[in-house]
Amino acid sequence: MTTYRVCCFLRRFRAASNEPSEELGGVFQAYADGGGGGVMGEEALRRFLREVQGEAAGDELEATAREVMAFAAEQRLLRKGDGGGLTVEGFHRWLCSDANAALDPRRRVYQDMGLPVSHYFIYTGHNSYLTGNQLSSGSSEVPIVKALHLGVRVIELDLWPNAAKDAVEVVHGRTLTSPVDLMKCLEAIKGHAFVASPYPVILTLEDHLTPDLQSKVAKMIKETFGDMLYISESENMAEFPSPDDLKGKIIVSTKPPKEYLQTKNDDTDEGVWGEEITDDKAATHAAAATTEEKLSDKYAAEEVVDEEQEAETDKKTQQGVDNEYRRLIAIPLARRKHDMDQDLKVDPDRVARLSLGEKAYEKAIVTHGADIIRFTQRNLLRIFPRSTRITSSNYNPLMGWRYGVQMVAANMQGHGRKLWLTQGMFRANGGCGYVKKPDILMNSDANKLFDPTSKLPVKTRLKVTVYMGDGWRFDFRKTHFDKCSPPDFYARVGIAGVEADTRMEQTKVKMDTWIPAWDHELEFPLSVPELALLRVEVHESDNHQKDDFGGQTCLPVWELRRGIRSVRLCNHRGEPLRSVKLLMRFDFT
């Protein structure tokens, strides 16, 4: 029994049990020898692996069967002798193991990495040096190291002169953030760039420097990175190299100086974990009604004037730049003309990178959605959070991915649902930081150009069963969720993808238990499974205040393994919880 003290009384609850849920137990009994026996023999296990787990007959199935039996034997959950086999506890414990994870733990990079870089979504950071908010936090090389270890492939540094104008600092300019020395950042990138992935790191520089300081930066970059630095043979590339071609390389991409106009925070209504994921239209309409949008409108004219002034300054600056600095620019930034028709015009002889702010991009997808898809088939497009996101909150990255945008910049310190989507996307393809865009986004036929807002036919249906969860009792103290009783958990499961596929469902609340057994079935029709992410959250129901957070994860649907699988949950920062897992079943029809 488990007891909780309430004033001078003791409340008693049944102790947590390791038994599988009713439906899971039914699956075991269906395959147990004799159709209801106490063990699952080797032949029955092979049949389960074929029929439920989707394993093809052959060497791989045989290897998996041997692994399961070896696992059970090691755990002393294998009955030996005649009529022996896998016990129900051994079956359940193997299902919960990391070897049975929803994403194959043995899968490495499997996509074709020999296509131009523009053919991939790229794990992109924003203001990569900041430790917290955009207005008053510190700057450090530590967040850069952390991002690289997570597989982030695009690092952004804002370069400003120091007070004496004789050295370079990395700092979020014209704010109260503290600076960090540029050399510390460069050394951190050099030392950690390829720890998580061998594929190229793109270094975007927000350059606010004089010609003399630009020359210093060129020297620092060349001396620090040495042979790791990619130098293009031509200033105008007709096509980007591939990630395979650029393995182990650091690529410099520059953009013109831009002031970040800081205002008060207006994201307070999003709550601790961020607002719910919505479709394009709803997100755009909601944004228009917020104070944040009004603030952005207020500064719109100032930003245009500011960019024009900076363009003139940049033109004068570039006249004094030596050729060494110019040669560092492997991926040039196309200067905006503030005419979207011109900005998104495709040059057949030259590729470049374009950057759009969140607000400008939201307007562009309404009026120039098809142009964005065509532009990103050859060129790189980066969208970055609006300047009024002082708390380092993020926006829905699917608004970019639906249109082929490769570099959807995320504040890695801005934890919440929108960053969880980014983390989910880049769990794909072995976590290497590059995920090949679906073929539908690369079709250049004008009659077949993808339209993410159109009504699309259903390609497949994902059937999900949420069986049960466990692990909270090991990772949290007894009174973490409720001081008077065990937790009341419920799960939220859904899809984030194109507008037609996006939805969220919820299980019933299981009262007073550390091991909730929901046995809840869901079905999601998918029109574009190649862009669909499975969202999973667990919360603890509270009638008197905000529900407590119990864990989350986000997984690429196209990499889910069929069958009953273990799904490890993460905390709000996206870090795996030590023990908390769900058992879920995935079937595609």
Automatic annotation (TrEMBL):
Pfam families: C2, PI-PLC-X, PI-PLC-Y. The keyword Lipid metabolism applies. It is an enzyme of class 3 (hydrolase). One of its GO terms (biological process) is phosphatidylinositol-mediated signaling. Residues 355-441 form the PI-PLC Y-box domain. Its EC number is 3.1.4.11. SUPFAM superfamilies: C2 domain (Calcium/lipid-binding domain, CaLB), EF-hand, PLC-like phosphodiesterases. Residues 436-571 form the C2 domain. Keywords: Cell membrane, Hydrolase, Lipid degradation, Lipid metabolism, Membrane, Transducer. It is found in: Cell membrane. This is Phosphoinositide phospholipase C.
